[in-house]
Amino acid sequence: MTDAAAPGWKIQCVSCGHQKSLAEAGGVRIGGSGTKYSLGRCSRCRGLRIVKIHRPSRP
Ligand SMILES: [Zn+2]
Questions:
Q1: How many CB atoms lie within 10 A of CB 24?
Q2: Degrees (nearest 5) of the Cα angle 35, 40, 10?
Q3: SS3 29
Q4: Which of 16, 19, 22, 51 fits 6 for a cystine, CB–CB 3.0-4.6 Å?
Q5: Mean pLDDT in the chain?
Q6: How far is the CA of 39 from the centre of ligand 1 (A)?
Q7: What's the gap in Å between 19 CA and the centre of ligand 1?
C-alpha cells in the first residue's frame, strides 16, 4: 500500500484540482487533522502551485 506513510491524506492542486495521495507524492503525514496549504509541484499542470493537504473523512 502506497498509503502507509500517510494514511488517508490527499494532496490537491488548487489550480487544476488534480488530487493524489500524499504518500504517492512523497510526502509525510503532518500530524493532527484539518486542512493545510503548502507549496508543491503539480504533476498535471507542471508548475509550482499552492497545494491543499487534507484528509477526507472515511465512510
Ligand atoms: Zn495542477
A1: 14
A2: 40
A3: coil
A4: 22
A5: 83
A6: 11
A7: 8
Model confidence pLDDT, tens digit, residues 11-36: 999 999 999 998 887 777 666 778 88
Q: How many CA atoms lie within 13 A of 29 on its CB side?
A: 13
Q: From ligand 1's centre to the CA of 53, what distance in Å?
A: 13
The continuous run of DSSP H or E covering 42 comes out as strand 36-42
pTM, whole model, 2 decimals?
Answer: 0.74
Report CA(14)–ligand 1 centroid distance (Å).
7
Helices (H), the chain: none
Q: Where are the domains of the chain?
A: 10-54
CA distance 22 to 38: 12
